[in-house]
Specification:
Blueprint: H1 2-19, H2 32-40, H3 43-67, H4 71-94
Helix pairs in contact: 1-3, 1-4, 3-4
Length: 95
Amino acid sequence: MGAIISGVIFLAVGLTVRVYPNILAGYNSLSQKEQENAEKNRLPFFGFILFTAMGAICLVSSILSILLEDPKLGSNITLILTFTGLIIAVVGGIF
């Protein structure tokens, strides 16, 4: 159940970032020129893709855990995915 909730939250955050890029940490405090540079480098789109992919993988892992009758599979994949997504967000957000 936790993987489903996490997946829905990740999808909601991804869609919200797509519509309202100002919710990204630090984006609103950038100058106008820096915001234009971030949009040119497609930072909001990167956040959208990252969170949407994380949500989709969480939902798929919950379905797999039900099909394979392994209740911990969805939770383990969600935990690993969260840490991996964090690392990707930090490293990808720099460039």
